[in-house]
From TrEMBL:
GO biological process, one term: guanine metabolic process
Pfam family, one: Amidohydro_1
Protein name per the record: Amidohydrolase-related domain-containing protein
GO cellular component: cytosol
Lineage: superkingdom: Eukaryota
InterPro entries attached to this UniProt entry: Amidohydro-rel, Metal-dep_hydrolase_composite, Metal_Hydrolase, Metallo-dep_hydrolases
Source species of the chain: Schizophyllum amplum
Residue ranges that the Swiss-Prot or TrEMBL entry lists as coiled coil: none
């Protein structure tokens, strides 16, 4: 495939690059083999050789890397938008375990939910997702195949939990849970091999410390190391959860994971709102990444995540929807909420600094919209250890992107919720994409602006 037009990406946390009139070639394997200005010699050659198959991106549109959702509970999509009125541990008992158990008992329902979820992810511009499933292996294979068939990158975790407040929704013992986890790793790999170019991978997934015995955690750490697979869980998420771990295990959440070799360079821990700066240093030392879920944190955690501090320490951080603890699947919401929460933290810092209270706060804690876009794209790919260059437009990177329409190039009339009055009023006004126009999309855009999706060079349809 050959594209010519405008490309927008955030190759680093501090940068937003708008590449005007570039030519990008995607090879037969779905990787970027060339990207350069149209006047480049090789670009001109490709335009001449492949002019019949050229996809021209018109004025008012651009390509941007697809989003990466680092934390999504697939079975909870069944009841997304409900039950956010209670503490975490109560919410799990009343809503979550029931829904997950139901999908494990009803394969047809699981197929319907997961197929619809995949479609919705494409609609939202999410090309890769790190997914929590249920405890039943067969149900998680339904999830893996649904994502594979939709053409999405999916990192699927079969839940491991030998402790539960719902007696009918648990694995019988640590040894039983470990055997099931090992079986799922093998069977998910088989799913990946059923179709050429499949993008599905298994993930070792202890739900969180309160649902896992020490024996189970130890075995999962050993399995992850032996099979070199990714790990995901919840870490220091909520006040009641942290208090439970202290009372039952006699140590902090992070120390439990560390003790059992579950903090690795291929681990993504969600939330981490109750981690202090020294704890963040521990994650840096292990290379462990964090899924920042600002919306669900507002509902279930009594403390916001230390995002700026984590970024300053060099931690790998991306964004998660945390459906259904977060009600919105679209990471556009997560980006905006991450900025809002950070600005509130910065406001609090300034008030405390003015009153000379609680010590010195030397750093601005707010992030801006460009940094949030980085977290939703490039940041997520680094957290997941995706192929080199993923989340940006560089040679060798997989071609995972979304096509965004801001306005009609001829009339200047905006798409969806966007309005560009200067372009409407003056047909002669320059149509070169500006940073202000991209920011307007970031703030106000929605699914009506998304007119295309690609993963590994393949066009996806909702």
């Amino acid at each position: 495939m050959l594209f010519r037009g405008t490309f927008v990406h955030c190759p680093t946390l501090a940068s937003l690059d708008i590449l005007h009139d570039y030519v990008l070639h995607v090879d037969d394997s779905g990787f970027i083999s060339h990207i350069a200005p149209a006047e480049d010699e090789r670009s001109a050659q490709l335009l001449s050789e492949l002019k019949e198959g050229l996809i021209a991106i018109p004025d008012g549109e651009f390509l941007v890397p697809s989003f990466v959702d680092l934390h999504l509970h697939a079975p909870q999509y069944l009841y997304a938008g409900n039950g956010l009125d209670m503490p975490l541990m109560e919410w799990l008992d009343k809503y979550t375990y029931k829904a997950e158990e139901r999908l494990d008992a009803e394969p047809a329902l699981a197929q319907a939910v997961y197929t619809r979820l995949a479609r919705r992810l494409i609609e939202c511009g999410t090309g890769a997702a790190l997914l929590f499933g249920t405890i039943r292996t067969d149900t998680n294979l339904i999830l893996a195949r649904a994502m594979r068939d939709a053409g999405l990158r999916a990192y699927v975790g079969k839940l491991s939990m030998d402790i539960s407040s719902r007696p009918t929704y648990t694995e019988g013992s640590a040894s039983e849970a470990l055997a099931a986890a090992r079986s799922f790793v093998d069977e998910c790999a088989d799913v990946n091999n059923e179709t050429a170019g499949s993008l599905v991978a298994p993930v070792v997934t202890p739900r969180f410390v309160p649902t896992c015995s020490a024996a189970l955690l130890e075995g999962l750490g050993a399995l992850a190391k032996e099979q070199n697979v990714r790990v995901q869980s919840h870490l220091a998420e909520a006040h009641d959860q942290v208090a439970w771990v202290r009372a039952e295990r006699g140590m902090e959440d992070i120390d439990v994971f560390d003790k059992h070799a579950l903090l690795t360079a291929r681990t993504v821990q969600a939330h981490c709102t109750f981690l202090d700066p020294p704890d963040l240093d521990v994650l840096v030392a292990h290379g462990t990444a964090i899924a920042h879920c600002p919306l669900s944190n507002a509902y279930f955690s009594a403390r916001p995540f230390r995002l700026r501090e984590a970024l300053q320490k060099g931690l790998k951080v991306g964004l998660g929807s945390d459906v259904a603890g977060g009600y919105a699947l679209d990471l556009m919401h997560a980006m905006r909420q991450a900025v809002v929460v950070s600005r509130m933290r910065e406001g609090e810092r300034l008030v405390r600094q003015a009153g000379n209270n609680e010590g010195d706060y030397p750093h601005n804690l707010a992030i801006n919209w460009k940094e949030a876009l980085y977290l939703a794209t490039r940041g997520g790919t680094l957290a997941l250890d995706m192929p080199q260059g993923a989340g940006s437009f560089v040679v060798g990177a997989p071609f995972d992107c979304q096509r965004i329409k801001l306005y009609d190039g001829a009339s200047g009339i905006g798409a969806g919720a966007l309005d560009f009055f200067d372009l409407e009023m003056d047909p002669a006004a320059p149509r070169v994409l500006s940073e202000d126009a991209v920011e307007k999309w970031w703030c106000l855009g929605d699914g009506r602006n998304r007119v295309g999706m690609y993963v590994q060079g393949k066009a996806l349809t909702p």
